[in-house]
## 1
Amino acid sequence: MKKLCLTSIISLFFSAVAFASWQPPARPINLYDPGTEKIVDYEKYGQFKNKGTREYVYEITDRAGLSKAVGEGIYPNEISIFRDPDYRWLDQHQWLEGSHWDFVNTDYQRVCFYKWATTDEDPGVKLFYTALALEKSGLILPAIKAYYAVIVHYPFTVGWTYWKTPWYIGKVSIDKIDYLARIHPELGIKLVGAKIVVENGFDDNVNNDIVITDPGKLVFSPPEEVTPPKVDLTRHRVVGGRGKGKVRLVKYDNGHWQLLVDGEPYKIKCVAYTPNKVGLTPDNGSLVVHRDWMFADYNQNGKIDGPYDAFIDTSGNNKQEIEVEPPVGDFQLMKDMGVNTIRLYHHAYNKKLLGELYENYGIRCAVGDYLGMYTIGSGAEWYAGTDYSNPKHRENMMNSVKEMVMNCKDEPWVLIWILGNENNYGVACNAKSDPIPYYKFVNDVARWIHSVDPDHPVAICNGDVLYLDKLAENCPDVDIFGTNTYRGSYGFGRSLWENVRDVYGHPVLITEYGCPAYMHGNYTRQRMEEEQANYLKGCWEDIEYNMAGSGQGNSLGGVLFEWNDEWWKAGPPPENNPAIQERYGQFIGPFPDGWMYEEWLGVVSQANGTLSPFIRHLRKAYYVYKELWNK
């Protein structure tokens, strides 16, 4: 991994800088030189050496022949693009001026393609973003060829996320090809045998990485065989599992996992639900995020506001016309969408309300404890942070878990327990700087829960796969690998499901995934909602594809983040006013315009906030999920 390094810190697939205000002609890419081969036969033009080892390399023996085969913009063809009339015109009219990072998050993929294909950047990164421009422009076959060229030539390339964790571009290129081939079976192409393993790749130190590469091969396939048929699980034996109670996990002889509730398969279709009033914030103590909504009755009618008094502003005038916009309540709206679970991040404070949620709407709860994240439950000072080696902190956190479990374990609405919330990222705790004591403590907690509650599995909520190896070594008593993961509109990639399968062997729950319904620039509300809906659709389809019977077979479901926008989340005062829905990006990431907008993640909005916590606008994502989750 020391062979290649990235000169710029980059986000997961997107740059920090949005496209400038100028707008080049918006025409599709018309490749001057698409290449002579639909699937390039690399063995005609070079030699694969040491496949499946750390010494892997592809040596080109016929550079001219390979250049003709791959086409313009794809390594090693770096010449024909300069003969392309479109490139010449754009260059002549100075549309390609500026940093290549400024071209990533734009609708003008034609310009982005030519800029990235001719820029001076790490060659693996350059080739990946060239492929991304082709993909986003709809040229799927050239994009697949370009992604595969990354795997062949630059599998060792590493970039960095905004959070300074490694981003392995070769592995993501495999994920991209798998995804594109699956959603475009008409191309009749699939990738077989490709695998990149990064030993020691679950920390943030790339100097200890050992990269083992087998590029596999792109092959022609009948469209009906691009995606393997779904496995009939009735033909497979149950060979193991976790738990023996009413909620349990079973493992089949093909390695697939399934969650059973009262003996029946259960897909976790979950949303994070915190419908708090606009204007309140934990930063000044006016809001306790995880509990206040369970008791709020601002209109003093004896009903909890969000669950029962929320209404749909069908007229869009930010008023309630009671005759045509009666209260319907979030619980009913969630049931209509197909939700079967909500995630409670820290305890269940209103058991009566949650009992009604289950009895009247059929929705269960994934009940959690922050386990010292944000110092909640540990008794630590914020700036010192929770110390997982501190006996007093451990005692406080264990007592917090005991209170949660003993209070709720016999309730019919409890589905699973979730420990933590991406504690391994180290916000107000030392789980990132000293992860082993943290994961050992998680295991101690899980073991105790099992001793008193055999009916509900225990999940950890990790941040992506950071420290997955250390988690696997120290958390044998945890049943489910949960992960808050935001990777892009293609979902999570084969690499995530394979990593957990190969390293930990436990089933996976995506404990958070989401996309903002806002983009910076001159975009319509309709366009922004479409981008959010398409992103979230891709995420669920990946989750569902990898459930028992298909894909890697270890997915249990996911937690959509989130139900409604929360206006306090962009940061503490004075930068953030909780009474205003902020429109500045908090950090770069794989989102529609390259930025995360923390206050725009809901599949329903709170309109202009004046009738919060009652008013709801249903975004397009709501209706997309209503179709997906009610199949």
Note: Residues 267-628 form a domain with the TIM Barrel fold (CATH 3.20.20.80).
## 2
Amino acid sequence: MTRQANLPGRTAPGLKDFFTRSERSHFYDCFEWPHLALCFVILCFFAVMIALGPFRWIENIFYDAFMKHRPSVQANSSVVVIEIDEESIKAIGPWPWPWHYHARMIDLLAGSGAKAIVFDTLFRESGLPYESRTIEESLRDKKPFYLPVQLEARPGKKIWVHSLPIVLEPEGSKKVWAHSIRDIEKFSAGLGHLNLDPDSDGVLRRIRPYLRDGEEGYWYLPVRVAYDAQGRPLAARGDFAAPTDEKGDLLIPWLGPWEKTFQRYSYEELIRGFQSSRIGMTPQKVAAMIKDKICLVGVTAPDLAGIYVSPVEAAYPSLGVQATVLSGVLDKRFVVPVPLWVNLVCLAAIGVIATVLFAILSNIPSLAAGLSLGGIWLAAAFWLFCWKGLWLFVFHPLALILVLFVVSAAYGQIVASREHSRLFDLATRDGLTGVYVIRHFREILNQIVGEAQGQKEPLSLILIDIDNFKGINDKYGHPAGDMVLKKTAHLIRSCLRSERPIHQTDFVARYGGEEFIVLLRNIGLEAAAARVGERIRRAIEGAVFSWKDVFIHVTISLGVATLRSGECVPDPMVHRADEALYDAKRTGKNRVCMENSGPAT
């Protein structure tokens, strides 16, 4: 009987048949459409996330870190802060002070040549007529001074009925503009709002350049002052030549910590220096500090001033915010939030680069490439922020790189697993019939023989040979023979146990050109021959083998043997099955023959 590894007329597979992915002649061969499609979907998802903005709070974390760690920026030298601090309140008296104190400060600053005087305090009704007259005299014909307005919640209105309050208008249901008294406000050079609105996380990052409510609208007071100081018009909203975000807000160009940024003088110190030179500060020195300066006058005492959390410092007074914005507008130094489409283009470019890198690289090189790309983007965004004032989204591109890496790695693992399974099948299964090759079958057989002897379980073997197969090849050609081999293998497998626990699974392999070998677990000799062998023989005999509308009658001969006690290797059992098969062939074919009786396990 012939036992050949390959059928006549069939060439042996070459290395490229087993390693089809090892040869890539073109760069584009590295890319696979499922991987590209998956990366494209992920890129579109991140683009939608940028547009919708659910992760802006994470972008704000990067923004705060950039702002805090960028090099310190020098404030405009014409900005001077005069703060009403705790020492001034202790020296002068409890807040609020009488108006004539401020009138004296106006006299001091105007007489020292201040370019503009900006208050962050509303001068409300005091109830003392002489107070109004005093400050009016101080304000008349003085240097330009500016007063704030404040958009506040309207106080609730109540009436009392039988000692019970009845709310007619709840507090906060409407807002109103709060002003200084008319007799003082009429002398001012301009008004501006000082409303500040931190982000949802409590950090102050932006101001509203122009705030309107009802029929009144005002520029942010430092913006108004800066434009007037430079002689620039600010009549319409289009006159404001500064970059704003998509909501029209101006990102505050923080310069650094409050204590180290601005020229700051104590209110009490200036008053005493103006009155007397005993503290070592003559009026001439005061004039030198104030001349041609824009003086911001306001409260910085922690218990009285508005304190905000900023990206550069946990406690930043409102007066410091005003000085920061004023300095930024004077120097035309802004933080420029790039438009949405620029962020989308950068995201797309990074996504394409990451996809290419993760497609052509694998494992450690892929991880190194992803980390390098993320580091380059982070460094580039920080450099543009520090030296060009551009604010680009950082988190979304970094997250995109991470997600693309994870997905690409998972996809690569899946493809590698499938490729490994395919190569394993190529190495262990016959390419024509799909059953095991004899080399792999022998490994299985050796292992199972040892297990059967150790556990005293029966083990049987069937050798199968297609009757008159050479005549089929000669009469109908080798393609017809291939068809017979494939269908025979399929019918044999259909008669065996599969998809069961491993100790109940049968195995079949191609033994030679037209021969097959079957391993049956937990089945004795007679059951193997009568039940399994006969079932296979009848299935083949009753099957329809048709080739080009010609019916081919196919039968098989089977030899059955069983593992005997004391046999630790399968070779004697295989030899006995081969002899039984020879007996089946010699006695007429198309039959099942068992080995000669002998002690079975």
Note: Residues 1-26, 597-601 have pLDDT under 50 and may be disordered.
## 3
Amino acid sequence: MEDNKRSNRLIFEKSPYLLQHAYNPVDWYPWGEAAFEKAKKEDKPIFLSIGYSTCHWCHVMEKESFEDPKVAKLMNETFVSIKVDKEERPDLDNIYMTVCQMMTGSGGWPLTIIITPDKKPFFAATYIPKETRYGRIGMKELIPRVREVWKSRREEVLSSSEKIADLLKQSSITSLGEELSENILDSAYAQLSGRFDERYGGFGDAPKFPTPHNLTFLLRYWKRTGNKQPPTPFGKGDEKVLHMVEETLQAMRLGGIYDHIGFGFHRYSTDAKWFVPHFEKMLYDQAMLTIAYVEGYQATGHQDYKQTAQEILTYILRDMTAPDGGFYSAEDADSEGEEGKFYVWSEEEIRRILPKGEAELAIKAFNVEEEGNFKEEATGEITGKNILYLRTPLIELASELKILPEELRERLESARQKLFDDREKRIRPHRDEKVLTDWNGLMIAAMAKAAQAFDQAEYINASKKAADFILAKMMDSRGRLYHRYREGEVAIQGFLDDYAFLIWGLIEIYETDFEVKYLKVALELTEEMIKHFWDEKGGAFYFTADDAESVILRRKEIYDGATPSGNSVAMLNLLRLGRIMANPEFEEKARQIGRAFSKDISQSPSVYTQMMAALDFEIGNPYEIVLVGNSKSDDMKAMLKALRERFIPNKVIILRPTEVESPEIIRLANYTKDMLSIDGKTTAYVCQNYSCKQPTTDIGKMLELFR
């Protein structure tokens, strides 16, 4: 298709997003010195366009403007144009997205920034149409204006860019403030409670994002506030904190945001009901949502949460896992140039694929309508297509249909499998097959946590295979991480999130099968992270390393948005490793992270919910549990099962195997050397506040120590 088109410099890149633009008539450059030297030499501003390969509006802007020869000619005459994949260069995206939010009050992708040759911004926008419409300036009008301003009002432009750069620097300065206290947790809960959508679950109005760390924080808050009641009926919680979690987990699972045929969650819901999704699927959403459903299951025992987590991981292992073990990044919302086409159904299709009885059941269960069940966003017209969703849990639907819940599950699963097999014949959305260390770290953690809760070896095996891949292919001889791998090439020096998220995954692997090598690597990476990212003066971690490429600003990130921040995850990692290793220096570093951001956090703690989970661990008298015994014995397995089937978030578990004469864990956690098994049985040492209770071989007595 593109054989007769000329490629630009992006043809030599590995990023799927950059390669999507390799045949644009725009003379694109990748981020690098060649582009900046050209801009200085030709005295041109730089048109910086940041997006990602599965971004719907990025595709729209490409088709409208970047593929248009007239727009491309204007761009080539006026700018040096640079394309950046935000997933490859989150450091640049963080900086220039902050600029966009400062200048316009909002942000999003594609992100459009016009900068000087020394990288300082003077114009910011998101999607820009080709023609001016609805009060939004178009590319054809914008470009000549910028050219005129650059030529005739250069001093104003440079002065403005300096002021913006200075404001950016001021906004990123941190200093050690007050220690975070327990009342911050109460404030975070109160703010979430105030935003909770009592009717549809979730927080706020449309568009509605999953934000799973809101839910995992609330589960910890529920545990902290002394709730002693048994779990409330599924989705009907009377106790407010658990009620918010359950309503949201349930509503997301029932809604159109969930892929009921192939599993996994779409990015977000465009409406408040979780019905009409933005159809792209991101690895980080699957990871964080898996963790939320795993912990929801541990807290309540509800099988639907377990099933949802297992289905997400089925999707990941089937569609998003590379042969060598790494996890792919994302799947697009669009296929055949149309958003959601792969995922929606007509009633006629369902009747064609399924036998009559199954078709009638599926049509009723998934709320399929002959004319379609949603409207085209742009035109408001009925589409003739259906987004599959459930109105009520299956147990309620079974009662309505007067059949047993298990029979309904079996019949719906039979229909689902047939629909899935037929859907596999469709043209699939684009899959972004780059492997990112940070997002893989999240999925490694999720897989390992699911392996613990569900006792499924498949998950820990996948988790370890992915970790082994990263450690073999994406870490250099100095123990430093790379950020991206694709088609045999590793590139881009690792960022804070790469270290923090992978360390999280490695800790979870250790607490799943207690293979000490993963704990050792977690400790080594922690030391590297402190060495190259820590701010001795202001506390907390910078996003980029001390020897990274020089950009206009070295920032610290704390906002827990689509993914949690590296600082929030690092704080909890340091606390957990500090307890495992009896290392108070790690715990002090963790406290300093909280102090570095205490002013911002105190004002709006509910947007830092992963940090709140770390704080909950810090001030919650966490337990250190040392299990001493044969690691393969039945009584060891029984004791671990008892710990894992309950929701006990503020704990670390260390296993000291007795079948090995000199276990390696003793060299890392020396305090375990004198802990012995009683009568050859698995023995639990439950420690808290730097003292250990009487060791016990009785599971019931061990659990009693947690009360």
Note: The mean pLDDT is 93.
